[in-house]
Amino acid sequence: MSTTRRDDAMSTTRAVIAVEDLVKRFGERTVVDHVNLTVDRGKICGFLGPNGSGKTTTIRMLCGLLTPDGGRGTCLGHDILRESDAIKRRVGYMTQRFGFYEDLTIAENLDFVARLYGLSQRRRRVDESLESLGLTSRRAQLAGSLSGGWKQRLALAACLLHEPDLLLLDEPTAGVDPKARREFWDHIHALAGRGLTVLVSTHYMDEAERCHEIYYLAYGRLKAHGTVEQVIASSGLSVWQVRGANVAGLGEQLSSDPAVISVTSFGTTLHVVGTDPRALERVVGRYRHLPGTTWTAVEPGLEDVFIHLMEGESGQ
Ligand SMILES: Nc1ncnc2c1ncn2[C@@H]1O[C@H](COP(=O)(O)OP(=O)(O)OP(=O)(O)O)[C@@H](O)[C@H]1O
To answer: Which stretches make up the ABC transporter domain (predicted)?
Structure first.
């Protein structure tokens, strides 16, 4: 018994974010509906869900920019209802539309942010921040002339200037090319390795797979939580992959069967998804001897799981 109590106490100490029953209403609409979230120090936590599911609203409640209508908890050890100023000082928040002065250079923009925070040793901090994000050679370039990937690096540099303990990143890589996204994530992992905690919202499955754990929100409600493997395993989905040159026509027939919840085309393959493995196997049995097709039972992907969770909630 005492071990359990000690473990609980330790996990509370490690948790950088620990909130429960978080609620936010806008007028009659409940857009965040009793959400629980725990993120430990040094972890990268992915926040996923369809558009309008309440991710940004939750992030803004965590960093003290919005007051919850219900719930309780702490962020960086501070009460989210009463100590928002203390939280704001220790959080780096990258919003979906990070604003720069386009007619200032990269270095001038960072210096401006450093002044806003009232930081000492601004020159040193700006130089170090440019260096760590590979921006030194571009320091004199106007922010307005940067491509998407470099703008996003500048945004990250600005969020890190005051050396926060928690990074809240709201779709930081939307519209950024794959190489720049990969580099951005390498950087995030390096920061987490040094103890920074990261909560990052994203619509990209490959990014979800780079998180230590994920939370999936749909229509304000938490639908899944855990490591990617845990979320996939708990989905209860069965998936068959069909390969063949002419599988497109087959998709329509398969999806009309009640045992099939979705069929997705990927070039010359189809993903056939169901929740009842036996019923799905019976469907597969009816088609699998069609000439020119190869059928394989495969693990569900995260995308299969999320689409299933989303469809299960829509219209409610
Ligand atoms: N200030 C506000 N007033 C009224 N409704 C709002 C306000 N802010 C957000 N909403 C609504 O709350 C819901 C949740 O929005 P939120 O931006 O949190 O979702 P999201 O999951 O971040 O979406 P996305 O993936 O598109 O960024 C949406 O329906 C949105 O229109």
So the answer is: 17-244
Long-range contacts, 83-90 (Cβ 8 Å, 24+) = 87/62, 87/63, 88/63, 88/64, 89/162, 90/164, 90/165, 90/166
Give the model confidence (pLDDT) of 70-85 as tens digits. Answer: 999 999 999 999 999 9
Other C-beta atoms lying within 10 Å of the C-beta of residue 111: 18
Is 184 among the domain residues? yes
Q: Are 94 and 203 in a shared domain?
A: yes
Residue 294 lies in domain: 238-299
* Nearest protein Cα to ligand 1, atom 9: 57
Does the residue 201 lie in any domain?
yes
Asked if residue 1 belongs to a domain, the reply is: no
Distance 56 CA to ligand 1 centre (A): 7
Q: Is the CB of 137 under 6 A from ligand 1?
A: no
Do 250 and 154 sit in the same domain of this protein? no
Q: Whose CA is nearest to atom 4 of ligand 1?
A: 26
The verdict on the CB of residue 56 being under 6 Å from ligand 1 is yes
The residue whose C-alpha atom lies closest to atom 8 belonging to ligand 1 is 57
Q: Do 215 and 287 reside in the same domain of the chain?
A: no
Question: Could you tell me the CATH number of the domain that includes residue 244?
Answer: 3.30.70.2070
* Cα(89) to centroid(ligand 1), Å: 24
The CB of 68 under 6 Å from ligand 1? The reply is no
Taking only the tens place, the pLDDT of each residue in 140-198 is 999 999 988 899 999 999 999 999 999 999 999 988 889 989 999 999 999 999 999 99
